[in-house]
Design a protein that fits this description.
The protein has 1123 residues and is α+β, with helices and mostly antiparallel strands. The protein contains 29 helices and 35 strands. It has 6 domains: 2-153, Beta-Lactamase (2-Layer Sandwich); 163-334, Beta-Lactamase (2-Layer Sandwich), CATH 3.30.450; 420-571, Histidine kinase-like ATPase, C-terminal domain (Heat Shock Protein 90, 2-Layer Sandwich), CATH 3.30.565; 631-762, Response regulator (Rossmann fold), CATH 3.40.50; 772-876, 2-Layer Sandwich (Beta-Lactamase); 962-1112, Heat Shock Protein 90 (2-Layer Sandwich), CATH 3.30.565.10. Strand 27 and strand 28 form a beta hairpin. The chain is flat.
Length: 1123
């Protein structure tokens, strides 16, 4: 083993395996017999980290290292080590063997790049690619004894490059397809160039209407073959085709279909002899749809593993196909839409042409008689009818102008309009057309500068068409110019005639300039004199100028004005080739109906800026409908319409007029209307904008709003109502219809207003009911409960409305109380309409009685007086009953206390006082005993006074105040005696008494003594020891006033409000004490109130403290002298 370890040392796992081989049993023999050339070559293989391989001897026995081992796969390693190459690689020996044999003969090396070798190394024949160099290894004799191979597997690179090329070609081939079927065919053509990755492919498209799948492309399998049906119905897609399309559709993900049905005699599918046996089914998603756009079924190569890279490639294929289908469908839809629009445009042109022709006849029959009536000298019209006919004439001309413009367009589009060019004095014609606007501009306060000097030669133009060009440009300038003026100039410049119409109006925003000559285009937000217009005037100008071989352009600065420039060639061929030559005579200024229509329209814009003049009321009135009255705001930018509607409404309503939405908002702020009637299309703020602002403002959110519009049809009506309009009226409308709509909406608005008021009241009532802590209930006429609020449900133990509705009136009372309810309460309720009092209800959960104050009343119909139900408002008085019971117990206790104090405490005190007084009568009593006996008497008397105070407080709190025994007495004398008694207890203190006036009156002398003693004692106790207490009594009319004043620390301000409450005690200086229990001042107040008087106190550092008692001399009239 030493030689083996020495020769085959290292090499990792493969080196270890080589060392375990019994080389004596192999064609190369034992290691000890190996020539040095073999030993060296094996050492190089094992030592390298690059995939190296050595085949030695005639049998090509194999040696390889760890880097080479993955090439052997799962099935050939480790058996290949020491094995003959032909045994290991039988599937490719026909590719390797001949070359190696030739190398042994010739010694020439072999090099190949990306060679495909079908290896069976992982359980199936696998498509593999290698780049390798095979070199001869010579032995000691110089002969080729082996093959040395250095190789790299390039399978991933080769297949990846191939797949990338397929994806690139697929994207390029389908990118520009404009039809879905063409995109599908191109996709299949590209996939057919990649059979190694996609042996076959089927592309199905789903029909949106039926859900069936249609075969739109195929590769590798003929359409209609068993595995490629041309259509599949939705219900049984999988069963009918053998493909799991249904599973892919339901999951929305790719699906592996293994073990495909046999080819049924069609042969193997794909480029390999074994054929494909599985497929990958992918749904092709469609944005915004649950159902896929289709399915892509791709066969899987039998010589490739379905790893992540293979699945990723197939997913990219499906995405590319999905994109191709989506783009092709989008182009198809765009083409269909363009065709439809072109057809619609042609139909619209034909329609306008036909309708315009049809309109001209009735318009001629309208305008002719109207003009005759306006100019009839024999039978002149009255003022009101004259104004109406003028309105008809103006709007008839406007309609004719629009019809003529539409007809011109239809003829231009049909190629039937030509310029009948004749030599024309263009300066005279232009000057006359522009000057026609002078009077209108003068009335508007604008200047008109017409600068059209004679031209050197006549210019060939169509006079009628030039008339339309000039009138449209000047009319447009006037419409959008509010200050300054308009300038019209005509010049001969080189080989061109140039017309310029300049104004000082609002100008055109730069972003609008490229589209200003487009048909039906209108500048958004332009503040013109009128919002009316079709948006085709300037477009017609451009078309007419082009018919003359010229051009039109515009320059504009917002806020400064615009200049429109028309250039016409002056050559003889200036008119279009199809023009007809006319007599070369100068054209005079036309007085056509076209010019009249433009001038009337411009004059109407000016009139629209002025309030309508009152109309004479000579016409026969319409039948008077029910007069609902009210204030109507009518908003329209057309002065004729404002005048017309005002005349219709003024007899029935108060009417305010506004010319646009902004004026209407100002009118609403000045005075809120009852109804708003508004046109839709107006300058500055249109009807929809006005409606939106009103609905966003709470104050105007509910004002009825009727929209007037020329847009008919259900869609227009729905749009208006969706915006928040109350009603929608289509022009033209009759006066009867307008009046009916206005009156109907006003009446409905009042009804809604009343309903909202009632709803607000109902909401308030509901809020009161729900927030109330009382039981509020309603029952039907049959006695069944209908409603009880939440507080009532809690009170009675009910749970929810269902529980309430399952009860009857009598269920709410205790069983023993129900006869009283039936026989007493209910008859009184029906007779008098209500009953109230204290009663008991029943708690449904516990069965316990709930004492309540019960208000019970009938609900009656206000119109008929019939009973429609019953209601109750009941308050739970359980707590009140408990408080009353506690109060009764307290009064009983206090009465007992009074009895105990009066009898059980006073009796011993009286005995003590009698005994002490008797003891003082003895002559043999010593000085010390006499002093102690005096103290006993003083303490007993103080205890007696305390008992009396306690009895007084208790009686006062029991109600009724203190009892008083009135008799006629002298207030001054009683005060003096009381002061002297107090001074005995305070001999060291000075009390000054002052008395003034008559002191006679009726009072309780003992109670007044209490008052004086308490106040004086209190003053002495809380004043400085050396200070003086002043007591005064004086008469004040029918009252006597007692004042007790002391100096010293004032009473704190926060104590003054509660000073006369029981048990309140003042603050003492440090070191001083008081035996007071805080009843004195309370008794003083009660005694004063018992006499019909009062007591008050003032206190401050500067003035000291003063208590003032004010008592009437005589008892009130209801009092007896002795009570």
């Amino acid at each position: 083993m030493g030689a083996v370890d020495d020769v085959l040392r290292g090499g990792g796992a493969c080196g270890a395996l080589l060392r375990q081989v019994d080389w004596a049993k192999t064609p190369v023999g034992p290691v000890e017999s190996w020539p040095q050339s073999l030993r060296t070559a094996v050492g190089i293989v094992l030592a390298s980290h690059y995939p190296l391989y050595l085949a030695w001897g005639p049998e090509f026995v194999q040696f390889y290292n760890d880097a080479y081992r993955p090439i052997c796969g799962r099935t050939k390693h480790p058996a290949a080590l020491g094995q003959a190459a032909a045994v290991t690689w039988p599937e490719v020996w026909h590719m390797l063997g001949p070359g190696w044999e030739r190398m042994r003969q010739t010694g020439e090396a072999i090099f190949v790049n990306d060679l495909m070798m079908p290896l069976d190394r992982n359980g199936f024949v696998e498509e593999c690619y290698f780049t390798y160099s095979h070199s001869p290894v010579r032995d000691e004799s110089g002969e080729v004894a082996g093959v040395f191979a250095a190789l790299t597997e390039t399978t991933a690179q080769v297949i990846g490059t191939r797949r990338l090329a397929t994806l690139h070609e697929l994207g390029a081939a389908t990118a520009d397809q404009t039809a879905t079927d063409d995109a599908c065919r191109e996709a299949m053509r590209v996939l057919a160039t990649a059979p190694l990755d996609v042996p076959f492919a089927l592309l199905y498209l789903v029909d949106d209407a039926t859900g069936s799948a249609r075969l739109a492309g195929t590769h590798g399998i003929s359409a209609g073959a068993p595995l490629a049906p041309e259509t599949t119905p939705p219900p049984d897609i999988a069963a009918s085709t053998g493909w799991p399309l249904g599973a892919a559709a339901s999951t929305g993900t790719a699906f592996l279909w293994e073990k495909l049905p046999g080819p049924s005699g069609t042969g193997a599918i794909g480029p390999w002899p074994e054929g494909t046996s599985s497929a990958w089914v992918q749904p092709l998603p469609r944005a915004g749809h649950d159902r896929p756009a289709g399915y892509l079924v791709t066969g899987l190569s039998p010589r490739l593993a379905l790893d992540a890279k293979y699945q990723g490639f197939l997913e990219l294929l499906a995405r590319s196909v999905t994109t191709a289908i989506s783009q092709a469908r989008a182009r198809e839809e765009e083409r269909r839409r363009a065709d439809a629009l072109a057809a619609l445009d042609r139909a619209k042109t034909d329609f306008f042409s036909n309708v315009s022709h049809e309109f001209r006849t009735p318009l001629a029959l309208m305008l002719g008689p109207v003009e005759d009536g306006l100019q009839d000298p024999l039978e002149p019209l009255g003022p009101r009818q004259l104004e109406r006919q003028r309105t008809v004439h103006r709007n008839g001309l406007r309609l004719l102008k629009l019809v003529n413009t539409l007809l011109e367009f239809s003829r231009i589009e049909a190629g039937r309009l030509h310029a009948t060019a004749v030599p024309t004095d263009l300066a005279t014609l232009t000057r006359g057309l522009a000057s026609g606007f002078r009077s209108t501009l003068d009335r508007a306060g604008l200047s008109l500068d017409v600068d059209c000097p004679p031209l050197p030669l006549p210019v060939k133009v169509d006079p009628d068409q030039w008339e339309k060009i000039v009138l449209n440009l000047v009319s447009n300038a006037f419409k959008f110019t509010h200050q300054g003026g308009i300038r019209v100039s005509l010049r001969w410049e080189g080989t061109q005639v140039v017309l310029r119409v300049a104004d000082t109006g609002m100008g055109i925003p730069p972003e609008e300039l490229p589209r200003i000559f487009d048909r039906f285009h209108r500048v958004q937000g332009a503040q013109g004199r009128s919002y009316e217009g079709s948006g085709i005037g300037l477009a017609l100008v451009r078309e007419l100028v082009r018919l003359h071989g010229g051009d039109v352009s515009v320059e504009s600065v917002p806020g400064q004005g615009s200049t429109f420039t028309v250039t016409l060639p002056t050559e003889e061929s200036s008119a279009s080739p199809s023009s007809q030559e006319a007599t070369s005579t100068p054209a005079s200024v036309p007085t056509s109906i076209t010019a009249a229509a433009f001038l009337e329209e411009a004059s109407g814009w000016l009139e629209a800026e002025r309030p309508p003049a009152p109309l004479a009321a000579h016409a026969v009135p319409l039948p008077v409908m029910k007069n609902v009255g009210g204030h109507v705001l009518f908003v329209d930018d057309n002065v004729d319409m404002r005048t017309y509607v005002h005349a219709m409404l003024e007899d029935r309503f108060e009417v305010t007029l506004a010319a646009n939405g902004l004026e209407a908002l100002e009118a609403c702020r000045a005075r809120m209307p009852d109804l708003i009637l508004s046109d839709v299309m107006m300058p500055e703020l249109d009807g929809f904008g006005l409606l939106r602002r009103l609905r966003e403002t709470p104050a105007t959110a509910h004002v009825p709003f009727i929209l007037l519009s020329a847009r008919a049809g259900e869609e227009a009506t729905v749009e208006g109502l969706r915006m928040g309009a109350t009603d929608y009226l289509v022009k033209p409308f009759s006066s009867r219809e307008l009046l009916a709509r206005v009156e109907g909406n006003l009446a409905a608005a009042r009804a809604r207003q009343e309903q909202r008021r009632a709803e607000r009241e109902r909401e308030k009532l509901i809020a009161v009911v729900e927030q109330s802590s009382d039981l509020i209930g309603i029952g039907g006429p049959d006695g069944r409960a209908v409603f009880i609020n939440e507080a009532g449900q809690r009170m009675l133990g009910l749970e929810g409305p269902d529980a309430v509705r399952s009860t009857h009136l009598f269920d709410y009372f205790l069983e023993e109380d129900r006869p009283y309810v039936r026989d007493v309460i209910m008859p009184r309720l029906r007779e008098h309409g209500r009953w109230d009092g204290e009663f008991r209800l029943r708690n449904f959960r516990t069965g316990a009685a709930v004492p309540v104050h019960y208000n019970f009343f009938m609900l009656r119909d206000a119109a008929t007086g019939e009973d429609i139900g019953i209601a109750t408002v009941s308050r739970d008085i359980t707590e009140r009953h408990q408080r009353e019971a506690e109060a009764r117990e307290q009064r009983e206790f206090e009465q007992q206390l009074i009895g105990i104090v009066s009898h059980d405490l006073r009796n011993p005190l009286n005995a003590i006082l009698l005994s002490a007084h008797a003891l003082l009568q003895r002559d043999d009593l010593g000085e010390r005993a006499t002093k102690n006996t005096g103290r006993i008497i003083s303490s007993a008397e103080r205890a007696n006074r305390l008992i009396r105070d306690l009895l007084d407080v208790t009686q006062a709190r029991l109600g009724g105040g203190l009892p008083v025994q009135r008799r006629r007495m002298d207030f001054h004398e009683a005060t003096r005696q009381s002061v002297e008694e107090v001074q005995v207890a305070f001999p060291e203190r000075q009390v000054v008494l002052e008395q003034h006036g008559d002191g006679l009156g009726t009072w309780d002398e003992e109670r007044l003594g209490q008052v004086v003693q308490n106040l004086v004692t209190n003053a002495l106790r809380y004043s400085e020891p050396g200070s003086t207490v002043r007591v005064s009594t004086r008469e004040d009319g029918n009252h006597l006033v007692l004042e007790v004043h002391n100096e010293g620390r004032p009473i704190p301000p926060e104590m003054l409000p509660t000073l006369f409450q029981a048990m309140r005690r003042g603050h003492h200086d440090e070191g001083r004490s008081s035996r007071s229990v805080g009843l004195g001042l309370y008794i003083v107040q009660q005694v004063a109130r018992a006499h019909g008087g009062d007591v008050s106190a003032t206190s401050s550092h500067e003035a000291g403290t003063t208590f003032t008692v004010r008592l009437p001399r005589e008892a009130p009239p209801a009092y007896d002298i002795v009570s």
